[in-house]
Design a protein that fits this description.
Ferritin-like domain-containing protein, 4-stranded antiparallel β-sheet
Length: 397
């Protein structure tokens, strides 16, 4: 069965459908498109809720030089995601298939403030990019595959814009992106579902990075996951770091999981039961994931901030001084896990950074970011000492 190129709009999020295989043949593309549509609905609703909640003053208080810039960009991205969903549903209807429209979403934890929302959006778009790449081996119709590629380029542009809006990121942090398999994507997105939403796709257990101090190259990472429960001794587990463009992950002992040098941009971190590296291509990773216990946790290691992004986030005001209020992307991603657990952002880890190395609005303690730390790049994670920004333990940012 062949479908119109309109169906390809769903392909990007097809990666979310974990246990899919070509053995499903004729129904595979339909399954992928239905799943993709639900995730497009999620993204569209996220941006719509954010735009409805925050006022222009919220953006300037978060450090944006002009509220018009972020609002305009979030409006464009929201419109793109809504269009993706509309076209997917029309395409499914054209071949007698019904889209899934019963799923509900919750974003309370991600919409506590503009800083949390913007950082979470950065993670969401990065997951979308990874989903497009991961879906490629699953799509059976070459016409759909081509159209999916056209959506992938749009999602990548969204990601670039959000990297710049972060104020501390690199517009294009690496020459290659990370492909994510279906269950991996769903483990990040599932906590945003409010109530039952049976898509027939299991998610891997969520993995949260729980460091409370600055994270940078050389930092030892600490984790939390329901899958790390003592059943397997921690000294026999492994931390696997996957970078874009790498043929396989970097395996490290779980108890000595240290961020390697020369890292900039997104990193996908998994926990496995052995030290065999995970391959980067999702086709083989899906068929050999029995050793994968949890993850991924997605983090941005922002070691090369760019002037353009700093210009966008340079005029927040606190006590007469200029500050920028941001939170690290991987901390915002923790919102997802927390959303699943509590639906709020009041009882988890929190994190703040300031573009000039000072404390953000409402904080009394300076926090380092990727620029001001004696010349060393770093990434703030964990709670601010006064609890001014609370971010729960999601892992996918």
């Amino acid at each position: 069965m062949r479908y119109s190129t309109l169906f390809a709009l769903a392909a990007p999020l097809a990666v979310h459908a974990a246990p899919l295989s070509r053995r499903q043949d004729g129904n595979l593309d339909v399954t992928i498109l239905k799943f993709a549509d639900v995730l497009e609905q999620l993204e569209s609703k996220f941006y719509a809720d954010a735009l409805a909640k925050f006022q222009t003053s919220d953006f300037t208080n978060a450090g944006f030089a002009s509220s018009d810039v972020p609002i305009q960009q979030f409006q464009v991205i929201q419109s793109d995601e809504a269009t993706h969903s509309t076209v997917l549903q029309s395409g499914l209807a054209a071949v007698g298939e019904s889209p899934v429209t019963s799923c509900k979403f919750k974003f309370d934890s991600a919409l506590t403030d503009v800083a949390t929302m913007a950082a979470t959006a950065r993670v969401v778009e990065m997951v979308g990019v990874g989903a497009y790449l991961g879906a490629a081996p699953l799509v059976t119709d070459p016409v759909i595959l081509q159209a999916a590629g056209s959506i992938l380029t749009v999602e990548a542009r969204h990601s670039t814009v959000l990297n710049l809006l972060s104020g501390s990121g690199t517009s294009v942090p690496a020459p290659f992106d990370i492909a994510l398999a279906p269950s991996e994507v769903l483990s990040v997105a599932a906590p945003f579902f409010d109530g039952p939403c049976d898509l027939g796709v299991p998610a891997f257990p969520t993995l949260a990075i729980t460091n409370t101090d600055t994270v940078a190259p050389g930092t030892k990472l600490e984790f939390k996951s329901d899958a790390i429960n003592g059943t397997v001794p921690e000294d026999s587990l492994f931390c696997q770091m996957l970078l874009g463009g790498a043929a396989s992950s970097i395996p490290l002992p779980f108890t000595d999981c240290v961020v390697p040098p020369d890292v900039n941009g997104p990193v996908a971190v998994f926990v496995t039961a052995d030290g065999q590296p995970l391959v980067s291509n999702t086709k083989d990773r899906q068929t050999n994931n029995g050793k994968l216990l949890a993850g991924p946790a997605l983090a941005f290691i922002d070691t090369q901030p760019q002037l353009l992004g700093q210009m966008l986030r340079s005029s927040g005001t606190s006590g007469g001084s200029q500050t920028t209020q941001t939170i690290s992307p991987e901390q915002a991603s923790k919102v997802i896990e927390g959303a699943s657990a509590t639906g709020t952002a009041s009882d988890g880890a929190s994190s703040t950074t300031a573009s000039d190395g000072s404390a953000p609005t409402g904080s009394s303690t300076p926090v380092n970011n990727g620029v001001n730390n004696g010349g060393k790049p770093n990434l703030s994670t964990g709670p601010s000492q006064d609890g001014s920004i609370n971010v729960l333990g999601w892992t996918g940012l």
